[in-house]
Give the backbone structure.
Amino acid sequence: MREAIRNNIADIIAEESIIGKDKNRIIKVPIRGVKEYRFIYGDNAPGVGQGGDGEPKPGDVLGEGKDGKGAQQAGDRPGIDYYETDVSLDELIDLMFEDLELPDIERKRLRQIEIERQFRHKGFRRKGIRVRLDKKRTARSRVKRKKASIKHHAGAPAPNRFPFHIDDLRYHHTVTDTRNESNAVVLCIMDTSGSMDTMKKYLARSFFFLLYQFLCTRYQNVEIVFIAHHTEAREVTEEEFFHKGESGGTFISSGYNKALEIINERYHPALWNVYVFHCSDGDNFESDNEAALKAAQELTQTANLFGYGEIKPLGSGYYGSSMITFFSQIQASNFQTVQIQKKEDIWASFKTFLSKDRAREDAA
Amino acid sequence: MTTEYSIADLEGWNDRIVELVQQFGLDPFPQEFEVCDHEDMLSYMVYSGMPSHYPHWSFGKNFEKLKTLYEYGVSGLPYEMVINSNPSIAYLMRDNTLALQVLTIAHVYGHNDFFKNNFTFRSTRAEYTIETFKGHANRVRQYIEDPSIGLEKVEAILDAAHALSLQCRRNLAIKKPSVAEQREMKLYEATPRADPFGAIHRRQERPTPDLTKEPLYPDEDLLLFIRDHNRQLAEWEKDLLTIVHEQARYFVPQIETKIMNEGWASFWHKRILESLDLPQELHLEFLVRHTQVLRPSAGSLNPYHVGMKVWEDIEQRWDHPSAEDIENFGPRKKTGREKLFEVREVERDASFLRRYLTEDLIRELNLFEYKSRGNEQVVSRVADEENWRQIKETLIQNVGTGTIPVIKVEDADYNNNRALLLKHHHDGRDLQLEYAEKTMRYLHQLWGRGVAMETLLDGQRTLLNFIDGKFSIKKPA
């Protein structure tokens, strides 16, 4: 199950159906079942079937891709092993991030909020469930008992086998615990200029969705700020961010300056983990480029991570400029650019973004 | 329809059925029943009815699949599930109606009798079934819990072993010669026969047999061969291969006799229920259920239906042979009943159909042959004068273990390199290449060195290679 989901994450992410759904809703995930391979016959193996009411005639079509083979065991034909199962969005998100080896994002000493966190190990018990068995302690208590037993029966020949006894078993004890947790703020900046068509917006939206979910798993309390910009930037609600279309030209710097403004006002970087992500099609007005670069540099200094995703759907052609080339002047280690061309890229680019953060931490 | 009945009711019916079973001359193992709900039933289904089984993700996968299919109403649940053990264990679903339970109980006795008496099941050691599976489960769990092994390594071996498990000998009634016996056979083959005209014949050159070759004769039990010839395997790995092999071996007879077995059980449940004097409302429901189970499923093959028709035909032809039959085979020495019991003991699906599926039956069952064309399955032959024999041949190819390609180990030291050479015994059906590749990856994993397999693709001799993690297809010019 987990394998199946994990192997197909890229596909699942690309399925439009899950994007943008409510966190607590149950979603349907198609599992392309993990195939169990054996040696089997291919297509040129004929079979025998039974006719129904009518007389079958040579040339009759039995139906497309139907596994009409009788007397055969289920599952030994290559077929589309396709069925659905219910996985809650939370579970799915957990699975997705599990294989990422994610960065333990830099934590800051900051405004502390008490939050409840469950299942902390606390001490040991003699009774428990198997998964919580502490092998090391169990082994240690056996050794203790052995020593004691030898001492007790001093002089008697030592038994050559000294098996574990049920009293040796030690289990972790877990308690629910409250502890203090740091906070993060994510600033999602999206270009809503006229050049961002539906496809581009969809890609950007999918990307932000993943990001939001990811940060929710890392931080108990994520605040999220949506900024939409064309030639001017403004803070918008989630609903507006994802659904509202605008038009006009593009001044990327406006979005960045708005972000800086918000950070200064409400999320001081000393107290907050600040993540800034920007999705655009890279089609900026030339005259704005210098300003954008300056603002971007400033952002890299304040934020933990600043990511820039450029959306260039295949076939859209490279009209206009690409900001990626332009932004390559920025040397900061926490600045990251990716290019997203199609749905399948989203997961990959998302990984790239975060691996950057990880690499930086490893180096530190 | 009513579901109001008690265990005592079931016991009452069971007693009456047992009485009839004995009257009819059936000879089952003692039978135990367990009443369970549908969730239990699904669980038993994925464990093939075993109360305990070793853990592996594929069972969980199957469970989810069956459950989803069941909950969406795509497929129903079997009314009954019975395992070949002594005493035999069968499960009855709590939600089923009384009529259905009675039908199921009768049906179960049919299977049980078949398990006990058919020759293919001789090798399954029914009295130890439950213990064997429990023992396997314990061993696998022990390896999983062993800190030096762990789940991941165990799973890797099981994944690979599962892929190869059915590549084993099919007819377990034929004894497999030991290595010493094989050596003797080789020597015997190489010894010149006594030739009364030796004085005038030129002396035959006889090559000395190579007794160091492994295997001496092609070996079909892939898992066992790997276990015995890959010296890199640890004891626990060998044990896992043995476990998977033994379980596959236990199920081979059931695969081999699917049509006979289901037909036999259906034949007898019908007989028994007809002699039970059911109250009218139960009888009506029985008729409905019986027809549902025995309904020919258009486009595919319903083993219950085909099997029962053949059994009924045998009884009919031996009790009331036609003039033509008497002319061809002489007068019958056995009654229909005697013949039935003989056939139940000595045949398996392939031989059963070959001997007793007559031209008339093929026509009555409305059988046809189909082939795939692109994405579609297309009817290629119908049961007319010229084609019925071919349909029968195709059917026989597709029953029992006929759906599993025959693949044998030819050489364990191929190219003097400890590579494994296999040969696919081609019978007109090509291998599915994607699956072959993935399965050879598993073989390679277990064997630890290169693996090659000879086969035919589109009529051309082909060598599939899996060496150093790479798969390649070579067609000799």
Notes: Chain A touches chain B through 50 residues (CB under 8 Å). The first strand of chain A starts at residue 26 and ends at 32. Chain A is about 35% helix and 25% strand. Confidence is low (pLDDT under 50) at residues 10-33, 64-86, 101-114, 360-364 of chain A.
